[in-house]
Amino acid sequence: MAELRQVPGGRETPQGELRPEAGPDEGPRSPVSEEPRGDGSSSSEAKVFPGEEEELDPRIQEELEHLNQASEEINQVELQLDEARTTYRRILQESARKLNTQGSQLGSCIEKARPYYEARRLAKEAQQETQKAALRYERAVSMHNAAREMVFVAEQGVMADKNRLDPTWQEMLNHATCKVNEAEEERLHGEREHQRVTRLCQQAEARVQALQKTLRRAIGKSRPYFELKAQFSQILEEHKAKVTELEQQVAQAKTRYSVALRNLEQISEQIHARRRGLPPRPPGPRRSSPVGAEARPQEEEDGDSGIIEGAEGEAPEEGCSLGLGPAPDADTGTWSRKHREAHHRRWMWT
């Protein structure tokens, strides 16, 4: 058997087969590079090719902020809307209960006096319609006067030079004449409408006066009931207006939410299209699953480390479709950091 010899490095080698020591000008020997394992991973860090690192599109951050703001507003306003609807229903039930109690105490005088209060309601509506018709008539008169002034100015321009007909002034005169005719029709229509609603208002007032004389006693006895009813009606109208306003706010917030989602989908499609246009990269180990995607059965068997990190409610990555679920509740900064880490790891392995 060959005699073993101890060398300074501590390794025993056969005699005559000494390991050459590193010279003074030589640096430390680099370790042997490890081959990639069968599962597609490697203990040494893979080389990142220049130009492959891609910055996060700033539009994504902006649209995510819009998405989160709209989501928070929807949640807040919907809570207010639920509370307003609950209050409206409670007041409605309370008013019905109190009115029924009041009606049972007063008896038949309520039904006797009801035509009078109904006539008062119709008279009030007719008065409001009269005011609206008067405003429309005044507006039509103003438009008619303005159109006549325009015709006067156009006529002065046409007659300024009798020897030459200016087509510009002629066109202006024709346009002003059409406006005068339209304004005249509108004025006549407004005048007739104002006269009609005025007659209806006068008839309603006359009916109220007649019923007041006929049903004076029943009106006096039933007054508490109808006053209470008027109070509840006003309160319910106010709460109904509040509910309607909150519903409009929710609809507007949902519209902004949908717009942000659509913008994110368009950005994602643009990024995918840009990536498809990139030159082919050198072949490398098998690519692991991207963040936000479910692992394939083979990857689960191999124990691949590229399984979803967004499985516990984190935001999907840039390339994923964002229009299939609710808004991400994670902080946008955390989302951006995770996206960049996942993106860097993905390109590093490709």
Word description of this protein:
This protein has a domain at 62-263: Helix Hairpins (Orthogonal Bundle), CATH 1.10.287. β1 (4-6) and β2 form a beta hairpin. The model is unreliable at 22-28, 30-53, 289-330 and 346-350 (pLDDT under 50). The protein has helices at residues 58-106, 109-159, 167-214, 216-276, 297-302, 332-349, and strands at 4-6, 12-14. It has 350 residues and is an all-alpha fold. The protein has six helices and two strands. Strands 1-2 form a two-stranded antiparallel ribbon. The radius of gyration is 42 Å and the shape is flat. α2 (109-159) packs antiparallel against α3 (167-214). The longest helix is centred in the last third of the chain and has 61 residues, at 216-276. GO terms for molecular function: guanyl-nucleotide exchange factor activity; protein kinase inhibitor activity; SH3 domain binding. Belongs to the SH3BP5 family.
Helix and strand arrangement:
Blueprint: E1 4-6, E2 12-14, H1 58-106, H2 109-159, H3 167-214, H4 216-276, H5 297-302, H6 332-349
Helix pairs in contact: 1-4, 2-3, 2-4
Protein name: SH3 domain-binding protein 5
Coiled coil: 60-94, 173-270
Biased composition (Basic residues): 336-350
